[in-house]
Amino acid sequence: HDQISINVVNKLSARLCSYTPGNKKHSPVWAWNEWDPLEEIVLGLPDMACCPEILPEAKACISENKFDFLLKHKGKYWKDVIEPEHYKIMLDEHKNFIKILQGEGVKVVHPEPIDFAKTLCTPNFTAHGVDCAMPRDFLLIVGNEMIESTMTWRSRYFEFMCYKKLIKDYWSRGAKWTAAPKPMCKETLFKENYRADEDSTAFFDEKTSILTEEEPVFDAADFIRCGRDIFAHVSQVSNNAGIEWVRRHLAPKGIRVHSMNFVDPKPMHIDTTLFTPRPGLAITCPERPCLQIGMLKKAGWDVVVAPYPDIAKNFPYYISSQWLSLNVVMLDENRVLVEKDEIGIQKLFEKCGITPVKVPFKHCFSIGGGIHCWTSDVRRRGDLQNYFD
Ligand code: ABU
C-alpha cells in the first residue's frame, strides 16, 4: 500500500511540476527579451483614438511647440483632426504591417477599442481617453507573465479595459496575469505648478520629475527586457516607487531591474532612448546620454549611438519626438522591423550584421508611437538567460 501511495504522490507532483508557472509548454505568453524569434504580437488599433487631453502630466512629456495644436483638438477623434489623406495612408500602413508580420509567420492579435472620446470619471479626476494604439505602454510581458501597468496619464487610466478580453484569454490558456496596483492619481501625485526645463542638460530624476513618490506609477514602455536584467527608465510616467514595485514583483523570478537616468527633460518611455536588439549590443539616442551606461560596457556590451532620424523634424509627430526612428521590433536577433524611410538607422543595423525589414509606417507615427510602441510581443521562442555576468 505504502509503495502504491508513494508512486501516486510522485506521479501527481511530477504532473504539477510540469504545470508550474514559467513552463512555456503551458503558457501562450512567453517573452524574456527583445530579440528571440518572434511568434505572436499584440498590435494596437487606431479605432476611436483621440487627441490626448493636455493635462499637466501630458505637458511634462510633450514638447511645448505641440501644446497649441493639442489644446485645440483635445478629446477629438484623430480621424477628424488629421488631414484625411494622411489618415488614410496611416490606415493603409497599419493594414500592410499586419500582412508583413503574418508573412513572417507571426500571429497578430488586437485589443478591443472603447469610445475614447467619452469623459472618464473617478472620485479624483475627470478626463477624456486616448487610444489602444500603443499596447507597449500598457502591457509588460516578462516570461509567461502579463503585467498590467498602472499607467500615469489620467487620460489613459481606463485603457486596461481594451485588453481585458485578450489578457483573460491568454490567462485561461495558462499565462500568468498580474495587475499592478491601480493608482489613486490624486492631485498630489503631480507637483504643483510644474514646468519642465526643455533646455536642461541634467540627468532626469525624482527632483526634476513632475511626479511625486506618493504611490507607485509606471508605464510598461519604460522597461526594456534583456533576460535576467531589465532596464527601467526613470521618467515623467514612471516614478522610483513604480520601478521599485516592478523590481520587487519580479525579484522572485531571479530578475534584476536596474533604474536608468538619462539626460532628457521630458522622458517618456525608454524605447526611443535605449534599445537592445541582440545580446551584447545596445543602441542609444545621441541626445539622451545615460548615467548608468557603464553597466553595459563593463559587461562587454557594445554601445553604439544611433544616427539622427531621416524623417524631417517637421513631419507631423503630433505627440512624440522624432526619435521614433529608434523604435523598432526584432523579428529575431538578425532581423529588425524598421520604418522604410529611416535609412540611417537601417545602415547602422546592417553594419551590426542585422538585416532591416523595411516597413512603411511613418504615418502611424503621427498619433504617438513607432513600431515598438504600436506592438507588444507576447511570444518569442527562447528561454530566460543571463546576459550580464
Ligand atoms: N512613446 C514613445 C515616445 C517617446 C518619444 O517621444 O521620444
From TrEMBL:
Positions of the catalytic residues: 219, 269, 373
Pathway involvement of the protein, from the record: Amine and polyamine biosynthesis; creatine biosynthesis; creatine from L-arginine and glycine: step 1/2
Classification via InterPro entries: AmidinoTrfase
Catalytic activity field: L-arginine + glycine = guanidinoacetate + L-ornithine
Entry keywords, A to Z: Membrane, Mitochondrion, Mitochondrion inner membrane, Transferase
GO BP, sorted A to Z: creatine biosynthetic process
Coiled coil regions in record: none
Enzyme class: transferase
Enzyme Commission no: 2.1.4.1
Main subcellular localisation: mitochondrion
Subcellular localization(s) per the UniProt record: Mitochondrion inner membrane
Single GO MF annotation: glycine amidinotransferase activity
Cellular-component GO terms for this entry: mitochondrial inner membrane; mitochondrial intermembrane space
Quaternary structure, from the entry: Homodimer.
Family: Belongs to the amidinotransferase family.
PANTHER family in UniProt: GLYCINE AMIDINOTRANSFERASE, MITOCHONDRIAL (PTHR10488:SF1)
Function (record text): Catalyzes the biosynthesis of guanidinoacetate, the immediate precursor of creatine. Creatine plays a vital role in energy metabolism in muscle tissues. May play a role in embryonic and central nervous system development.
Full protein name: Glycine amidinotransferase
